[in-house]
Amino acid sequence: MPQAAPIAAVAARLRSALPTGAVIDDPTQLATYDCDGLLHYRVSPALVVLAKSADDVQLAVRACVEHDVPFVARGSGTGLSGGALPHADGVLIVMSGFREIRAVSPRDQRAVVDPGVINLAVSQRTRPDGYYFAPDPSSQQICTIGGNVAENSGGAHCLKYGFTATHVLSAEVVTPDGERTMLGTTAPDAPGYDVLGAFVGSEGTLGIATEVTVRLLRNPQSVQTFLAGFADCNAAGAAVSAIIGAGIVPAAIEMMDALAIEAAEAAVSCNYPPGAGGVLVVELDGPEHEVEAELAAAEHHCREAGAFEIRVAANDTERQAIWRGRKSAFAAVGRISPDYIVQDGVIPRTALPEVLRQMGELAAERGVRVANVFHAGDGNLHPLVLFDEQVPGQGDAAEDASGAILDLCLAHGGSITGEHGVGSDKAKHMPKMFTEDDLDTMQLVRCAFDPQGISNPGKVFPTPRLCGEVPGKRKAAHPAQQAGLGEVF
Amino acid sequence: MPQAAPIAAVAARLRSALPTGAVIDDPTQLATYDCDGLLHYRVSPALVVLAKSADDVQLAVRACVEHDVPFVARGSGTGLSGGALPHADGVLIVMSGFREIRAVSPRDQRAVVDPGVINLAVSQRTRPDGYYFAPDPSSQQICTIGGNVAENSGGAHCLKYGFTATHVLSAEVVTPDGERTMLGTTAPDAPGYDVLGAFVGSEGTLGIATEVTVRLLRNPQSVQTFLAGFADCNAAGAAVSAIIGAGIVPAAIEMMDALAIEAAEAAVSCNYPPGAGGVLVVELDGPEHEVEAELAAAEHHCREAGAFEIRVAANDTERQAIWRGRKSAFAAVGRISPDYIVQDGVIPRTALPEVLRQMGELAAERGVRVANVFHAGDGNLHPLVLFDEQVPGQGDAAEDASGAILDLCLAHGGSITGEHGVGSDKAKHMPKMFTEDDLDTMQLVRCAFDPQGISNPGKVFPTPRLCGEVPGKRKAAHPAQQAGLGEVF
């Protein structure tokens, strides 16, 4: 691993080229960058660079390449898997000041933005022209497009519109060897390898996006939102299955269980149906006639599944009221529990009732409670494991329950993360989901782009390896990989 | 390049392990494999292997790796870009006998199939259960799923449902070094690199799929199809823009111009609206209420744009009659022209009128005619350049017009291929669409998977390179690529 000398050399190189204040090595200031949204991992970087342009990013990466120093890019630091956790001996490249919307072309349905542009800022800029950027992570008021690209971010409306990967047409990237290249193209149906597709969601391990061309969608002609109260989550889940099964693809179907409803009520008095053990928030959008027809059908399916109250928003104010409870739910959990862990897993929608039942059991066995708020349409669960750090053993019990929930998702053919990413937090779980062979194949790509292993090392992949060792069993056939290249990462 | 000895060694190895008749080296038999659907490139392979299993494929690839012999996989040979054109010194691995549907799981909306399974066979098998496989290339009665994966095949209904990449969940692959690995996962929203996304559409250059798990869609509750006749293609194009602009996403919108209509009438008497200079075939599918509302809106937009006749199919027989003209159009062109070239390009939908005008001009300048049949909704043109080989100079003029059409697509921000792939035919056009830097980045992936350059060499990429040279300017930073590895390809 790099020692003080390489970092000092990198610092000197960057100071000579960048404005005063853009390079930070004061320990107190460095400590303010010691985590992202996943607060319980903390590492201060050795150096921080405040990048304002692609040139700045390239300069920083090239200095790191030359001195074999690891680097990590960070947007707003809202990530929930420690993907932007700094490296103790490395450079943290802070992208949040690199944020101009470069061009908006409504006719071509695209915008060209800097990576530090705030997600919501894109739609705010384009909505008057009749367009918006679809991915809407719950942090969209503060998270950056560059971070969305790194994590392939989702959101409530990704059921209908897809994750970030669907909405990025091309990206200029500084690769881990310090080159600048364009991935993807704005031409429709381009040939060649879809390298952009592999880059989106690579969590900073294949380089840093320095310009992103995003797809804009037309504002829907009509939006209808309703809240449906059910006796329990099983009934609500049956409604979800019936709606999707009927071929309706709502813009969003969100579910909350009794504990999540209780938390939301305590925080924002959202006035959800009294006595509900499960609520659905269903949003439909599209051409007016289509939305009206779908609304009638979705209401019907909810009633058939046992909804005892359905409340359709009559206007935008009522729509926002319905969403307020859902959107506040995470923070609201603080009202009913001193501490909590937000988990993120995915299951096939059909496994919902069984998984919810078993999740309740495993939580009870460990003496903790689980509140559920989730994107029901695509089976993306966000269980909140509630505990009290002051009670001896509860912290460990909650950690244990949180891990067991992922195992439960996997046992039902699901995934260890829906939209929060692997980052630092879940790298250890990757071998539960992928064979060594699968991971070796991903390492082929990693080593092709980052033979030194300096681009966000330690994230995503579980086992530090020499690129020369990857993939071990392929050595005979891959002379390129016998040379013992690169650093451990 | 490999000489006779390596091929003889490969043949001996394969004969020792495979049943009689599975290894072919008789020149007359080899000649029957000398082209795919693009008839004007012809190369006989040095050896043919009829593979029936993943073991057979792996055996063949391993033998090729050991003796440094190129290999090419071939399904039904329906490709239109010479992607399955054999290598004169190489092995052609014929996959069409490797064709069992291994498992169908309607509840999970997926099926596991061998690569040699015929596209249409999947839907024939699953339709009674209420499901189908969406990608529908016009060759779907004969083309294979493995070929669809290699080419990321599209079809008339890909406007709404997306190309093959959207419908493949995972694939077992024999990589160019002879290993077997799984790309993708059936778990929703899986983390890690989307290597499967890069593999789909890689046209055989990253390995051979030996098992494919495809996504099944539910049969739509309702389908409505109509034919609209317009004075010319500009009016028809305006209707397309109005329909899409209104937020309606039809299952298909196909357009034919006067010459294509004439050809179809001559061949199958499809009784299209007399006097039409442009027709649209519009198909809407989904929940019944939604389709009814969309049908009314789409008809309205067509009339507003000047449709003088609209014929809605009252039943399945009438629907098939409407499609018959469209589907026969390519072959039908033989009725009005002794020879023709099928081109495949993409333009932004908004550029349609201008591109059609200029295409007419460039054809007239060269003394040839162009008939247009295309997927209007996504701007995927299939111009048919008509000529008579017997007339001196017409063959060259047609080739020249065909190339000029691609340049026209590129000048309007389009692509050199929509769904036929790059293959042998369009590799030379890749530098018009991608910078050397873009292509270098793709080569990073290529060399990671295929350092010997033996997997379908000569396809997709324009310039033969040593993997040790790729990417040239990155040498300093990528010690892995300095070793002078691999063969020219």
Automatic annotation (TrEMBL), chains A, B:
Oxidoreductase listed as a keyword: yes
SUPFAM superfamilies: FAD-binding/transporter-associated domain-like, FAD-linked oxidases, C-terminal domain
Alphabetized UniProt keyword annotations: FAD, Flavoprotein, Oxidoreductase
One Pfam match: FAD_binding_4
Keyword Flavoprotein among record annotations: yes
Domain of life: Bacteria
Cofactor(s) required for function per UniProt: FAD
MF GO annotations: FAD binding; oxidoreductase activity
Coiled coil: none
InterPro entries in the cross-refs: FAD-bd_oxidored_4_C, FAD-bd_PCMH, FAD-bd_PCMH-like_sf, FAD-bd_PCMH_sub1, FAD-bd_PCMH_sub2, FAD-linked_Oxase-like_C, FAD-linked_OxidoTrans_Type4, Oxid_FAD_bind_N
FAD-binding PCMH-type domain span: 41-219
PANTHER family the UniProt entry points to: GLYCOLATE OXIDASE SUBUNIT GLCD
Protein name, entry field: FAD-binding protein
Native source organism of the sequence: Flexivirga aerilata
